[in-house]
Amino acid sequence: MGHTCRGTINLATANISVEDSCNFIISNGGAQTYHLKASSEVERQRWITALELAKAKAVKMQAESDESGDEEPSSAQGDKTELQATLRTLSSKVEDLSTCNDLIGKHGSALQRSLSELECLKLPPESSEKIKQVNERATLFRITSNAMINACRDFLSLAQTHSKKWQKALQYERDQRIRLEETLEQLAKQHNNLERAFRGATVLPASSPGSAGSSKGSGSHGKGDMSDEDEENEFFDAMEDAPEFITVPADPKYHNLWFQLMEEQPVAANHESSTRELVLRKNRRNRIPDKPNYSLNLWSIMKNCIGKELSKIPMPVNFNEPISMLQRLTEDLEYYELLDRAAKCENSLEQLCYVAAFTVSSYSTTVYRTGKPFNPLLGETFELDRMDDCGYRSICEQVSHHPPAAAHHAESKRGWTLRQEIAIASKFRGKYLSIMPLGSIHCIFANSNNHYTWKKVTTTVHNIIVGKLWIDQSGEIDIVNHKTGDKCHLKFAPYSYFSRDVARKVTGVVTDPSGKAHFILSGTWDEKIEFSRIMQSTRGENGTEGKQKTVYQTLRAKELWKRHPLPDNAENMYYFSELALTLNESEDGVAPTDSRLRPDQKLMENGRWDEANTEKQRLEEKQRTARRKRESEAIKATEDGTHVDSYKALWFERREDPVTRELTHIYKGGYWEAKEKQDWSGCPDIF
């Protein structure tokens, strides 16, 4: 404190008290006092919590800098008593050892005297030698016992010297526990008060659409609304993004009609067909070998990778999970039933809700999956034929290596087609890894010719170097129906430590071509999504950042999608879902380029990681050799004035998409016909 500016209050000795819902006081018990005002009760509690934690840290630092200390805190009597009892016990044990040492010395001396007397007797030379050896050993025993007693005394002295520091550490931990308990109690009370205030302040009557905009003058607004004078005197730290809209319950008379209409939708019919499918569904494996516990120095590998493309970094399989990126892409079909239901919707806006739920569901498998999929080799494919039991089949192909890009085509006998080309852009930033999927996803329904497109959000892997790995999804998605002009805007909220919202939150609004909102979607990308029909919308007051919020009166929410529970023992099987566990299962008749046949991936799944690393290096070198050969042929053809085509995918062709006008790879057909004939003559030798 000797180098601080005038007016500074030492946090270690500061008094922090609450004056009312928004005001609090910090003082040093003397003339120096600060009266502070927060924008809301929640903001005030955040500052109180942060200051209390900082105060606890200051107290700890002060205690550590003062080794000797002056006075022991009176509140540490319980810890002090326990510590003193421990020291008394240690002292008693050392006294017992000292008594034993005295007895050893006494009896040892007597033994040596007896041995000396024996030496004086006229005994055979052999006996005299033996007695001399015994005498030397007795002397060594006494010296050793004395050394042991001295070491015990040193230990006791050291314990007494550091007892003061131990007492301070124990007291600090006790104070921290009490402070956290008090903070949690305050937060719980604050949460209840805010819930009651929110319910009392935000519900709008269905018959007064303009009430939201005119409530300021009526006096019915909550404490969050402030006068112009208050606003001029306020200042704020960085704030989290406020929601763009608010939902309130609509008139109860609409709810029964809403649920009657939803019961007539194809959900019930789909349930009947799903029950029939369960009988026909093939028995597939439900477990793989447990993941071995191999250690690896992460930093020794990652320190040379900062700022580089992830796809260009040679990684050992220790960072992988035993499936390829093609199989990970196929996992988007985990909840294909949502598209089956969407295909039966007659209303395009309701169909869009199911498509949006399907979009969100594709991220649910990533919440615990911190392993990196294998980078596919150029020309590698993966098929998933579930036409007999699930009604769909899917084919993926790695169509480009640098930049890495995969094309995917899935078709269903229930009237939908899904296709996409995804290129991965990724950067390692030292503390986290950002994965940015590039490319559009298309979903087409045969009956209505509705054509939907959307793009994926950014995936971030945190704590790459230190701490436990965890994954977050963030960004915004616009799902557009190119036939009708309907649109769904989804927002994936990034994780924030200070946010009051539930983690992994997703919200969305479904609008028609005129911009009128019809449905609200809400939930989390790792658990479930619900949707509510909007009965009425009004423009509310400006928020804290001047943004005007829309108030939607909605009917009771109905569940669209819910995540399947993970299989038993999933934590030891890379947190694979039921579908992921079956992706490497052997299938008859697949192409020789199929990911199931990739040897390094199979070795890793079986726990033979050292062999997998060796095999992975062999495959990557084989791929590099093939690329150098293609480049050499291209250079030679240029010199000869001839033309050599660049690499072309086998099952997909690159052309302009008729809807988005993007150059993309679209399935040209032929794979399933080749499988039926078992004619794989066009497949490259990549394994």
TrEMBL record:
Q: Which InterPro entries match?
A: OSBP_sf, Oxysterol-bd, Oxysterol-bd_CS, PH-like_dom_sf, PH_domain
Cellular component GO terms, alphabetical: cytosol; perinuclear endoplasmic reticulum; plasma membrane
GO terms of biological process kind: lipid transport
Question: According to the lineage, what is the superkingdom?
Answer: Eukaryota
Q: Which residues does UniProt call coiled coil?
A: 170-197
Extract the SUPFAM superfamilies matched here.
Oxysterol-binding protein-like (SSF144000), PH domain-like (SSF50729)
- PROSITE patterns cross-referenced by the UniProt entry: OSBP, PH_DOMAIN
- Residue stretches of biased makeup (Acidic residues): 64-73
Localization, UniProt: Membrane
Residue ranges of region Disordered? 61-80, 203-230, 587-635
Looking at the record, the residues that make up the PH domain are: 1-56
Molecular function in Gene Ontology: sterol binding
Q: Where is the composition biased (Low complexity)?
A: 205-218
Question: What UniProt keywords apply to this chain's record, in alphabetical order?
Answer: Coiled coil, Lipid transport, Lipid-binding, Membrane, Phosphoprotein, Transport
Q: Does the keyword Phosphoprotein apply?
A: yes
**Membrane-topology annotation of the record:** Peripheral membrane protein
Which PANTHER family does this one have? OXYSTEROL-BINDING PROTEIN 1, OXYSTEROL-BINDING PROTEIN-RELATED
Which protein is depicted? Oxysterol-binding protein
